[in-house]
């Protein structure tokens, strides 16, 4: 007859060992892992489940990271005092590992542990009352709701806004796991009326988030064939560091040629700076300063010097220089044409000072005239004339990007050529970050109005082992941005390809389903050691579920993300209804697709649906 005293229905085992915040629990023997407590069913040993360890007036809380069972020993020793509590010694026992994450005293929950359990302390299931204590102190004024806690019915999943922005965040998940929906939900919450001065900038490489903004955001896009009222993306070439501009427009140059060009660009910027509303000190101007200059004038001067021929091979000055057959024109990129030099030791002679950059000078005009680079080189108020004068400055551009009345601005860079995408994005982010740095004490500065930068497809801009302009700028924001009110949200389906040093700067990790082994290892490597066991959940997460680890949610939690009100374009197609409803589209659509392709634009009107006998092929009211 069992004369042991009855225990609480929530008791499941006892502490067997403690190693810092990691606690090993020996489970008491039970015929089933499913127990009923106050009409609620609980399953013992679920990865990610919360457990409670009462220590007097204090309760410690931990999350289950591992479960298992010991092998049956060959020699059965006498039961220890701890084993005797559960009756006769068994041939083996079940156990679980907990990672402690917080404690509660008097109904007040705090992250972190002030005291630790010891061997023999009781371990209990967490009841709805305990869950209310754990999640009850999230201040709604400093949080956004993204869904529900998956393991607790009816409990909102609220992310702490201050830490989400200031301490950076990463969102990772395989294709189809619900990553774009989560980003859209976060954007909806940030644009809601509770945050009228919120400021968010989204770098959108696929053009998918513009459809999910509604009236609270605006889209700035590049590409051809845009409607007249479209917000066109503009990136002034003269704001790029000279090395990046030369690499984009001319390719590789010899070091001595590059230094000579650096001197000439500095001269052009110094001359043009006098036409600015408030010229900077001359001694502060470098070839990398964001001061306008005419790249067409630079090309014209370089090619003129390269093409010039002389009547004398040794004495080459203005007196022996041939008059040009065609004086050329810098504005229209028409080169100067001189009498061609001969290959023999006779006039006309080549210019002895030519730099051998004919190929690079041929590439530059093609870049300036390439329609794909119109966002950077097309004449407009930001593009300087031959004297370097502009009618609109960087202040208007930055106000357009991050200073509008809308909470969210999406920079759609889907039409930017892929070979210069990292340079363009790096330049835009550098302009914004540097401007907010120098505005730190102003109302538009990041400390008084913080900025959140959402970087989608981050693996394209932060690839491991690649030194790109975007990598350098984003790395700087990840390390220094918190001090100046600039937050970073990294979104990627390939976390294994993202530079780990930048991922490690993110205070919050939101992981949706990840199936690739290398990507799972990258996620596990970016979380603290005692919670690394939870990453085993990631491959089995359902679509729309996420594991949240870090500062934004003060306890590690599995959450169920709600559906966004406006779906991003990147959502999966609506199958099977897309193959069931209506009729097959007309062949004219393929003609439109080819026109779009050739014009590098998707703004061409859609083909009309064919009509069938008896009415339209598809009734929009159906």
Regions with pLDDT < 50 over 5+ consecutive residues? Answer: 1-6, 73-91, 609-622
The radius of gyration is 32 Å
Number of helices: 16
Strand order of the largest sheet: 11-10-23-22-21-12-20-19-13-18-14-15
How many structural domains in the coordinates? Answer: 3
Judging from the principal axes of the Cα atoms, what is the shape? elongated
Name the structural class.
alpha/beta
Q: What would CATH call the class of the largest domain? A: Alpha Beta
Number of strands: 25
The CATH architecture of the largest domain can be given as: 3-Layer(aba) Sandwich
> How would a crystallographer describe the biggest sheet?
12 strands, mixed
Q: What do the pLDDT scores average to?
A: 84
| CATH homologous superfamily designation of the largest domain | P-loop containing nucleotide triphosphate hydrolases
Helix content: 10-25%
CATH topology of the largest domain: Rossmann fold
Ends distance: 71 Å
Instruction: Tell me the β content.
Output: 15-25%
Structure description:
The chain has 16 helices and 25 strands. Mean pLDDT is 84; it is low at 1-6, 73-91 and 609-622. Helix 7 runs antiparallel to helix 8 and helix 11 runs parallel beside helix 12 (469-480). A 12-stranded mixed β-sheet has the order 11-10-23-22-21-12-20-19-13-18-14-15. Strands 1-2-7-6-5-9 form a 6-stranded antiparallel barrel. The protein has a two-stranded antiparallel ribbon with strand order 3-4. The protein folds into 3 domains: 11-135, no CATH class; 162-234 and 393-561, Rossmann fold (3-Layer(aba) Sandwich); 242-373, no CATH class. The longest helix is centred in the middle third of the chain and has 19 residues, at 255-273. Helix content is 25%, strand content 21%. The protein is elongated. The chain starts with 10 loop residues before the first strand and ends in a 6-residue tail after the last strand. With 622 residues, it is of the alpha/beta class. Strand 10 and strand 11 (156-160) form a beta hairpin. The relative contact order is 0.14.
């Amino acid at each position: 007859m069992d004369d042991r005293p009855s225990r609480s229905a929530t008791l499941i085992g006892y502490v067997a060992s403690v190693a810092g915040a990691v606690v090993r629990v020996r489970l008491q023997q039970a015929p089933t892992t499913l127990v009923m407590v106050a009409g609620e069913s609980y399953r013992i040993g679920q990865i990610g489940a919360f457990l409670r360890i009462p220590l007097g007036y204090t309760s410690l809380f931990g999350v289950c990271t591992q479960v298992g069972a010991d092998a049956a020993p060959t020699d059965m020793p006498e039961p220890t005092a701890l084993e005797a509590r559960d009756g006769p010694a068994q041939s083996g026992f079940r156990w679980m590992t907990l990672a402690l994450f917080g404690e509660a005293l008097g109904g007040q929950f705090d992250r972190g542990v002030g005291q630790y359990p010891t061997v023999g302390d009781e371990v209990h299931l967490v009841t709805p009352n305990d869950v209310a204590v754990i999640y009850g102190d999230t201040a709604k004024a400093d949080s956004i709701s993204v869904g529900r806690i998956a393991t607790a019915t009816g409990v909102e999943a609220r992310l702490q806004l201050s830490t989400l922005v200031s301490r950076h965040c990463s969102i990772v998940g395989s294709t189809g796991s619900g990553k774009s929906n989560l980003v859209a939900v976060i954007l909806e919450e940030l644009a809601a009326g509770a945050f009228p001065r919120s400021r968010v900038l989204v770098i959108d490489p696929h053009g998918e988030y513009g459809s999910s903004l509604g009236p609270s955001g605006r889209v700035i896009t590049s590409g051809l064939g845009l409607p007249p009222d479209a917000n066109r993306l503009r990136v002034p070439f003269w704001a790029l560091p000279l090395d990046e501009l030369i690499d984009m427009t001319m390719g590789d140059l010899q070091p001595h040629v590059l230094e000579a060009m650096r001197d000439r660009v500095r001269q052009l910027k110094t001359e043009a700076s006098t036409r600015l509303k408030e010229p900077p000190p001359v001694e502060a101007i470098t070839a990398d300063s964001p001061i306008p200059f005419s790249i067409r004038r630079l090309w014209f001067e370089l090619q003129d010097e390269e093409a010039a021929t002389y009547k004398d091979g040794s004495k080459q000055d203005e007196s022996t220089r041939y008059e040009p057959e065609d004086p050329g024109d810098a504005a229209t990129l028409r080169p100067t044409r001189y009498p061609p030099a001969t290959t023999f030791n006779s006039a006309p002679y080549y210019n002895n000072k030519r730099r051998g950059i004919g190929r690079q000078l041929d590439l530059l005009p093609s870049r300036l005239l390439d329609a794909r680079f119109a966002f950077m080189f097309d004449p407009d108020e930001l593009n300087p004339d031959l004297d370097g004068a502009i009618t609109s400055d960087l202040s208007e551009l930055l106000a357009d990007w991050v200073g509008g009345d809308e909470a969210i601005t999406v920079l759609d860079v889907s039409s930017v050529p892929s070979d210069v995408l990292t340079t363009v994005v790096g330049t835009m982010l550098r302009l914004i970050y540097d401007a907010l740095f120098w505005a730190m004490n102003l109302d538009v500065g990041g400390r008084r109005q913080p900025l959140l930068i959402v970087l989608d497809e981050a693996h394209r801009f932060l690839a491991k082992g690649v030194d790109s302009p975007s990598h350098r700028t984003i790395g700087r924001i990840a390390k220094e941005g918190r001090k100046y009110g600039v937050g970073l949200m990294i979104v990627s389906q390939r976390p294994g390809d993202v530079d780990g040093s930048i991922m490690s700067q993110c205070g919050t990790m939101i992981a949706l389903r990840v199936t690739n082994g290398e990507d799972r290892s990258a996620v596990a490597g970016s979380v603290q050691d005692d919670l690394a066991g939870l990453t085993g959940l990631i491959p089995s997460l359902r679509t729309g579920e996420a594991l949240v680890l870090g500062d934004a949610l003060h306890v590690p939690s599995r959450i169920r993300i709600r559906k966004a009100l406006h779906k991003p374009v990147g959502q999966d197609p609506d199958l099977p209804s897309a193959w069931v409803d209506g009729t097959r589209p007309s062949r004219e659509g393929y003609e439109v697709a080819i026109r779009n392709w050739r014009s590098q634009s998707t703004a061409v009107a859609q083909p009309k649906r064919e009509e069938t006998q008896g009415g339209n092929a598809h009734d929009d009211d159906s």
